[in-house]
Amino acid sequence: MLKPAEIHQGSSERRLGMEVVNPTAKSKKLAHPAAHAPRIFADTATMEEIKPLKEGGIVNGVTTNPTLLKRAGATSWVTADKIQKEIVKYMAPYPVSLELTELEPAKMIKQAKKLAGFGSNVVVKVPVGGYSTVERDRLTGLKVLRQLWELNIKTNATLIFNTTQAFWAANAGASYVSPFLGRVADYLYKHDQVERHAGNALYYIENHKAPEGGPERQANTAYVAAGGDRKDAGIRLINEIVSVFNTYQIKTEVLAASFRNAVQVMECLLAGADILTVPAPILMGVADHPLSDEGMKAFYEDSKVFDK
Ligand code: E4P
User: Fold this and answer.
1) What are the tens digits of pLDDT across the range 235-279?
2) CATH code of the domain in which 254 resides
Protein backbone atom coordinates (compact mmCIF):
# COMPACT_ATOMS: atom_id res chain seq x y z
CA MET A 1 0.00 0.00 0.00
CA LEU A 2 1.20 3.51 -0.73
CA LYS A 3 2.43 5.50 2.26
CA PRO A 4 1.35 9.11 2.73
CA ALA A 5 5.02 10.12 2.33
CA GLU A 6 4.88 8.85 -1.25
CA ILE A 7 2.39 11.51 -2.26
CA HIS A 8 4.24 13.85 -4.57
CA GLN A 9 5.15 17.06 -2.77
CA GLY A 10 4.13 19.23 -5.73
CA SER A 11 0.53 18.02 -5.50
CA SER A 12 -0.99 20.89 -3.59
CA GLU A 13 0.65 23.52 -5.79
CA ARG A 14 -0.75 21.94 -8.97
CA ARG A 15 -4.23 21.45 -7.53
CA LEU A 16 -4.39 25.02 -6.24
CA GLY A 17 -3.94 26.13 -9.84
CA MET A 18 -6.93 24.07 -10.92
CA GLU A 19 -10.69 24.66 -10.79
CA VAL A 20 -12.25 24.82 -7.30
CA VAL A 21 -14.25 21.63 -6.77
CA ASN A 22 -16.35 22.74 -3.79
CA PRO A 23 -16.97 26.48 -4.17
CA THR A 24 -18.42 28.58 -1.36
CA ALA A 25 -21.23 30.99 -2.29
CA LYS A 26 -20.50 34.63 -1.36
CA SER A 27 -23.56 34.66 0.92
CA LYS A 28 -22.17 31.82 3.06
CA LYS A 29 -20.19 32.46 6.24
CA LEU A 30 -18.80 28.96 6.50
CA ALA A 31 -16.23 28.38 3.75
CA HIS A 32 -16.19 24.86 2.32
CA PRO A 33 -13.27 23.07 4.00
CA ALA A 34 -12.47 20.90 0.97
CA ALA A 35 -12.39 23.47 -1.83
CA HIS A 36 -9.67 21.63 -3.78
CA ALA A 37 -10.63 18.07 -2.88
CA PRO A 38 -10.55 15.40 -5.60
CA ARG A 39 -13.81 15.13 -7.50
CA ILE A 40 -15.89 11.97 -7.31
CA PHE A 41 -17.77 10.79 -10.40
CA ALA A 42 -20.29 7.97 -10.80
CA ASP A 43 -19.04 5.33 -13.24
CA THR A 44 -22.42 4.31 -14.64
CA ALA A 45 -24.97 5.11 -17.34
CA THR A 46 -27.93 4.06 -15.20
CA MET A 47 -30.10 7.01 -14.11
CA GLU A 48 -31.50 5.16 -11.08
CA GLU A 49 -27.93 4.91 -9.77
CA ILE A 50 -26.94 8.46 -10.71
CA LYS A 51 -29.93 10.27 -9.18
CA PRO A 52 -29.49 9.42 -5.47
CA LEU A 53 -25.74 9.98 -5.69
CA LYS A 54 -26.15 13.43 -7.22
CA GLU A 55 -29.01 14.40 -4.91
CA GLY A 56 -26.92 13.40 -1.90
CA GLY A 57 -24.00 15.57 -3.08
CA ILE A 58 -21.82 12.45 -3.33
CA VAL A 59 -20.87 12.87 -7.01
CA ASN A 60 -20.24 15.84 -9.24
CA GLY A 61 -19.74 14.10 -12.57
CA VAL A 62 -20.43 10.90 -14.51
CA THR A 63 -18.41 8.67 -16.80
CA THR A 64 -20.00 6.27 -19.27
CA ASN A 65 -18.76 3.84 -21.90
CA PRO A 66 -20.48 1.55 -24.43
CA THR A 67 -20.52 -1.35 -21.94
CA LEU A 68 -22.20 0.78 -19.28
CA LEU A 69 -24.74 2.08 -21.83
CA LYS A 70 -25.58 -1.50 -22.79
CA ARG A 71 -25.97 -2.34 -19.10
CA ALA A 72 -28.28 0.67 -18.74
CA GLY A 73 -30.59 -0.81 -21.37
CA ALA A 74 -29.39 0.74 -24.65
CA THR A 75 -30.14 -1.59 -27.55
CA SER A 76 -29.64 0.82 -30.48
CA TRP A 77 -27.94 4.14 -31.24
CA VAL A 78 -31.30 5.80 -30.74
CA THR A 79 -31.72 4.45 -27.21
CA ALA A 80 -28.02 4.99 -26.42
CA ASP A 81 -28.28 8.66 -27.45
CA LYS A 82 -31.50 9.06 -25.47
CA ILE A 83 -29.78 7.76 -22.32
CA GLN A 84 -26.68 9.90 -22.92
CA LYS A 85 -28.74 13.06 -23.46
CA GLU A 86 -30.77 12.40 -20.32
CA ILE A 87 -27.63 12.02 -18.18
CA VAL A 88 -26.02 15.14 -19.68
CA LYS A 89 -29.12 17.22 -19.00
CA TYR A 90 -29.58 15.87 -15.49
CA MET A 91 -25.93 16.35 -14.48
CA ALA A 92 -25.44 19.86 -15.96
CA PRO A 93 -23.24 21.77 -15.28
CA TYR A 94 -21.18 18.82 -14.01
CA PRO A 95 -19.07 16.91 -16.56
CA VAL A 96 -20.34 13.77 -18.26
CA SER A 97 -17.92 11.65 -20.32
CA LEU A 98 -19.41 10.10 -23.47
CA GLU A 99 -17.23 7.70 -25.45
CA LEU A 100 -16.43 7.68 -29.16
CA THR A 101 -17.12 4.43 -31.00
CA GLU A 102 -16.01 5.44 -34.51
CA LEU A 103 -12.50 4.45 -35.61
CA GLU A 104 -11.75 6.74 -38.57
CA PRO A 105 -10.47 10.21 -37.58
CA ALA A 106 -12.96 12.13 -39.73
CA LYS A 107 -15.86 10.07 -38.42
CA MET A 108 -14.55 10.35 -34.85
CA ILE A 109 -14.48 14.15 -35.09
CA LYS A 110 -18.01 14.13 -36.52
CA GLN A 111 -19.23 11.88 -33.69
CA ALA A 112 -17.39 14.03 -31.12
CA LYS A 113 -19.13 17.16 -32.43
CA LYS A 114 -22.49 15.37 -32.22
CA LEU A 115 -21.87 14.25 -28.62
CA ALA A 116 -20.54 17.69 -27.62
CA GLY A 117 -23.80 19.10 -28.99
CA PHE A 118 -25.74 17.22 -26.27
CA GLY A 119 -24.63 19.84 -23.72
CA SER A 120 -21.79 22.15 -22.71
CA ASN A 121 -20.88 19.75 -19.89
CA VAL A 122 -20.03 16.88 -22.28
CA VAL A 123 -16.48 15.53 -22.22
CA VAL A 124 -15.67 13.33 -25.22
CA LYS A 125 -13.95 10.07 -24.30
CA VAL A 126 -11.28 9.01 -26.75
CA PRO A 127 -9.49 5.63 -26.46
CA VAL A 128 -5.80 6.51 -26.53
CA GLY A 129 -4.55 3.24 -28.03
CA GLY A 130 -5.48 -0.19 -29.29
CA TYR A 131 -6.12 0.99 -32.85
CA SER A 132 -3.61 -1.41 -34.43
CA THR A 133 -5.76 -4.33 -33.23
CA VAL A 134 -8.54 -3.10 -35.51
CA GLU A 135 -6.12 -2.39 -38.35
CA ARG A 136 -6.05 1.37 -37.93
CA ASP A 137 -3.29 3.95 -37.55
CA ARG A 138 -1.80 3.43 -34.08
CA LEU A 139 -1.73 7.17 -33.40
CA THR A 140 -5.41 7.70 -34.25
CA GLY A 141 -6.40 8.46 -30.65
CA LEU A 142 -3.64 11.03 -30.10
CA LYS A 143 -4.35 12.74 -33.41
CA VAL A 144 -8.07 12.98 -32.61
CA LEU A 145 -7.33 14.29 -29.11
CA ARG A 146 -5.22 17.06 -30.65
CA GLN A 147 -7.89 17.98 -33.17
CA LEU A 148 -10.58 18.10 -30.50
CA TRP A 149 -8.39 20.36 -28.38
CA GLU A 150 -8.10 22.66 -31.37
CA LEU A 151 -11.89 22.61 -31.65
CA ASN A 152 -12.26 23.57 -27.95
CA ILE A 153 -13.92 20.23 -27.14
CA LYS A 154 -13.03 18.77 -23.74
CA THR A 155 -11.68 15.22 -23.85
CA ASN A 156 -11.09 12.27 -21.59
CA ALA A 157 -8.29 10.00 -22.89
CA THR A 158 -9.38 6.52 -21.90
CA LEU A 159 -7.88 2.99 -21.79
CA ILE A 160 -4.65 4.30 -20.22
CA PHE A 161 -2.38 1.59 -18.80
CA ASN A 162 0.96 3.35 -18.49
CA THR A 163 2.42 6.76 -17.73
CA THR A 164 3.74 7.29 -21.25
CA GLN A 165 0.23 7.00 -22.68
CA ALA A 166 -1.00 9.47 -20.07
CA PHE A 167 1.76 11.95 -20.83
CA TRP A 168 1.20 11.76 -24.59
CA ALA A 169 -2.54 12.20 -24.18
CA ALA A 170 -1.92 15.29 -22.04
CA ASN A 171 0.51 16.59 -24.63
CA ALA A 172 -2.13 16.10 -27.30
CA GLY A 173 -4.45 18.33 -25.26
CA ALA A 174 -6.62 15.89 -23.24
CA SER A 175 -8.56 17.49 -20.38
CA TYR A 176 -8.58 14.20 -18.43
CA VAL A 177 -6.62 10.95 -18.60
CA SER A 178 -8.26 7.74 -17.34
CA PRO A 179 -5.87 5.06 -16.06
CA PHE A 180 -7.75 1.77 -15.50
CA LEU A 181 -6.38 0.60 -12.15
CA GLY A 182 -8.87 -2.26 -11.67
CA ARG A 183 -8.02 -3.88 -14.98
CA VAL A 184 -4.32 -3.75 -14.07
CA ALA A 185 -5.20 -5.58 -10.86
CA ASP A 186 -7.42 -8.05 -12.77
CA TYR A 187 -4.50 -8.85 -15.06
CA LEU A 188 -1.99 -9.34 -12.27
CA TYR A 189 -4.44 -11.39 -10.25
CA LYS A 190 -4.75 -13.75 -13.18
CA HIS A 191 -1.01 -13.97 -13.81
CA ASP A 192 0.59 -13.81 -10.34
CA GLN A 193 0.68 -16.26 -7.47
CA VAL A 194 -1.64 -14.72 -4.94
CA GLU A 195 -0.28 -14.23 -1.42
CA ARG A 196 -2.80 -13.95 1.37
CA HIS A 197 -1.81 -11.84 4.37
CA ALA A 198 -4.58 -10.55 6.53
CA GLY A 199 -3.81 -6.85 6.86
CA ASN A 200 -6.13 -3.94 7.56
CA ALA A 201 -7.38 -3.73 4.02
CA LEU A 202 -8.19 -7.41 3.85
CA TYR A 203 -9.93 -7.23 7.20
CA TYR A 204 -12.01 -4.38 5.88
CA ILE A 205 -13.02 -6.13 2.69
CA GLU A 206 -13.81 -9.47 4.28
CA ASN A 207 -15.95 -7.87 6.96
CA HIS A 208 -17.57 -5.28 4.78
CA LYS A 209 -21.05 -5.95 3.49
CA ALA A 210 -21.46 -4.33 0.08
CA PRO A 211 -24.97 -2.91 -0.13
CA GLU A 212 -26.92 -4.85 -2.73
CA GLY A 213 -23.94 -6.94 -3.73
CA GLY A 214 -21.80 -4.98 -6.16
CA PRO A 215 -18.32 -5.55 -7.45
CA GLU A 216 -16.64 -5.48 -4.05
CA ARG A 217 -16.34 -9.23 -3.91
CA GLN A 218 -14.77 -9.60 -7.31
CA ALA A 219 -11.82 -11.94 -7.37
CA ASN A 220 -9.05 -9.38 -7.39
CA THR A 221 -10.24 -7.74 -4.18
CA ALA A 222 -8.23 -10.17 -2.04
CA TYR A 223 -5.29 -9.80 -4.36
CA VAL A 224 -5.27 -6.01 -4.10
CA ALA A 225 -5.70 -6.18 -0.36
CA ALA A 226 -2.89 -8.69 0.13
CA GLY A 227 -0.16 -6.02 -0.26
CA GLY A 228 3.25 -6.27 -1.90
CA ASP A 229 4.92 -4.47 -4.76
CA ARG A 230 2.90 -5.75 -7.68
CA LYS A 231 -0.33 -6.09 -5.78
CA ASP A 232 -1.08 -2.39 -5.98
CA ALA A 233 0.32 -1.82 -9.46
CA GLY A 234 -2.86 -0.01 -10.49
CA ILE A 235 -2.55 2.47 -7.63
CA ARG A 236 1.16 2.93 -8.32
CA LEU A 237 0.29 3.77 -11.91
CA ILE A 238 -1.98 6.57 -10.66
CA ASN A 239 0.77 7.80 -8.34
CA GLU A 240 3.33 7.75 -11.15
CA ILE A 241 1.14 9.74 -13.54
CA VAL A 242 0.31 12.28 -10.81
CA SER A 243 4.02 12.65 -10.02
CA VAL A 244 4.89 13.37 -13.66
CA PHE A 245 2.00 15.82 -14.02
CA ASN A 246 3.03 17.56 -10.80
CA THR A 247 6.64 17.82 -11.91
CA TYR A 248 5.69 19.55 -15.14
CA GLN A 249 2.62 21.34 -13.77
CA ILE A 250 0.43 19.57 -16.35
CA LYS A 251 -3.17 20.62 -15.69
CA THR A 252 -4.72 17.55 -17.38
CA GLU A 253 -6.69 15.85 -14.58
CA VAL A 254 -5.83 12.29 -13.56
CA LEU A 255 -9.16 10.46 -13.49
CA ALA A 256 -8.69 7.12 -11.73
CA ALA A 257 -11.06 4.55 -13.27
CA SER A 258 -12.06 0.89 -13.17
CA PHE A 259 -12.51 0.45 -9.42
CA ARG A 260 -13.11 -2.97 -7.91
CA ASN A 261 -13.40 -2.16 -4.20
CA ALA A 262 -13.46 0.60 -1.59
CA VAL A 263 -9.83 -0.02 -0.57
CA GLN A 264 -8.76 1.14 -4.02
CA VAL A 265 -10.77 4.33 -3.45
CA MET A 266 -8.79 5.10 -0.31
CA GLU A 267 -5.48 4.22 -1.98
CA CYS A 268 -6.25 6.44 -4.96
CA LEU A 269 -6.68 9.35 -2.56
CA LEU A 270 -3.21 8.60 -1.18
CA ALA A 271 -1.89 8.34 -4.72
CA GLY A 272 -3.05 11.89 -5.44
CA ALA A 273 -5.74 11.25 -8.10
CA ASP A 274 -7.59 14.40 -9.20
CA ILE A 275 -10.84 12.56 -9.91
CA LEU A 276 -12.12 9.10 -8.95
CA THR A 277 -14.88 7.57 -11.06
CA VAL A 278 -16.47 4.85 -8.98
CA PRO A 279 -19.30 2.34 -9.62
CA ALA A 280 -22.45 3.10 -7.63
CA PRO A 281 -22.41 -0.04 -5.41
CA ILE A 282 -18.92 0.87 -4.16
CA LEU A 283 -19.95 4.50 -3.55
CA MET A 284 -22.94 3.27 -1.54
CA GLY A 285 -20.52 1.61 0.89
CA VAL A 286 -17.78 4.24 1.33
CA ALA A 287 -19.23 5.60 4.57
CA ASP A 288 -19.22 2.14 6.16
CA HIS A 289 -16.69 0.16 8.18
CA PRO A 290 -17.32 -2.91 10.39
CA LEU A 291 -16.24 -0.93 13.46
CA SER A 292 -18.49 2.00 12.47
CA ASP A 293 -21.37 -0.49 12.36
CA GLU A 294 -20.46 -1.80 15.79
CA GLY A 295 -19.98 1.69 17.25
CA MET A 296 -23.20 3.06 15.79
CA LYS A 297 -25.18 0.15 17.10
CA ALA A 298 -23.78 0.67 20.61
CA PHE A 299 -24.40 4.47 20.57
CA TYR A 300 -27.92 3.86 19.35
CA GLU A 301 -28.67 1.24 22.00
CA ASP A 302 -27.18 3.39 24.79
CA SER A 303 -29.05 6.53 23.71
CA LYS A 304 -32.35 4.66 24.01
CA VAL A 305 -31.86 4.76 27.82
CA PHE A 306 -32.50 8.53 27.72
CA ASP A 307 -35.93 7.99 26.21
CA LYS A 308 -37.24 6.54 29.46
C1 E4P B 1 -14.51 4.73 -16.87
O2 E4P B 1 -14.27 5.78 -17.41
C3 E4P B 1 -14.14 3.41 -17.43
O4 E4P B 1 -14.73 3.22 -18.66
C5 E4P B 1 -14.54 2.33 -16.47
O6 E4P B 1 -14.12 2.71 -15.16
C7 E4P B 1 -13.98 0.97 -16.84
O8 E4P B 1 -14.24 0.09 -15.81
P9 E4P B 1 -14.15 -1.50 -15.95
O10 E4P B 1 -12.72 -1.88 -15.97
O11 E4P B 1 -14.86 -2.01 -14.75
O12 E4P B 1 -14.86 -1.85 -17.23
Assistant:
1) 889 999 999 999 999 999 999 999 988 888 988 998 999 999 999
2) 3.20.20.70
